[in-house]
């Protein structure tokens, strides 16, 4: 087993759990479809979270030739994966089986309350990203900082300005598409 395989087993477990959590939430919401108050922006946000989970998994393969792993790099990769898990965990509303009220199934209300924590978790992921881009991928520092900075600003705004969630979800989807384009 190579060092890359050893490191990425742990990362893959966490990312797999994040995808499972997100897909499980989708399945539960489909089951409760007649009681949910759907909003496209929350679904778009969840799709963006899934894109970043898959993007981290995909980009991880690019590190297969990297042989000088340090414990700091391992911990930062694990932390990045944990941040993505946190973002996936809180991206969508969850049925609480309270028969008196279905208020928790309001997509937009969720996104402007607990969904903000999902955005804060994505913020953590985006703050770690430049380290890997600069140190492991030899990306120019300025380009890496600007690219991550755009995402950081969007996540800060999403966290601090919940009333702008719809517009910020669209902006973040465009950002996610650009990240995917440049890293694929």
Describe the SSE topology.
Layout: H1 3-31, H2 40-61, H3 71-89, H4 107-111, H5 115-135, H6 141-160, H7 165-183
Uncertain runs are none
Helical residue percent band:
over 70%
Percentage of residues in DSSP E strands: under 5%
| Count of strand segments | 0
Explain the overall architecture:
The chain is an all-alpha fold and 184 residues long. It has seven helices and no strands. It has helices spanning 3-31, 40-61, 71-89, 107-111, 115-135, 141-160, 165-183. The model has no long low-confidence stretch (mean pLDDT 91).
Quick overview of this protein structure:
The protein is 73% helix and 0% strand.
Main attributes?
single chain; 184 residues; mainly alpha; 7 helices
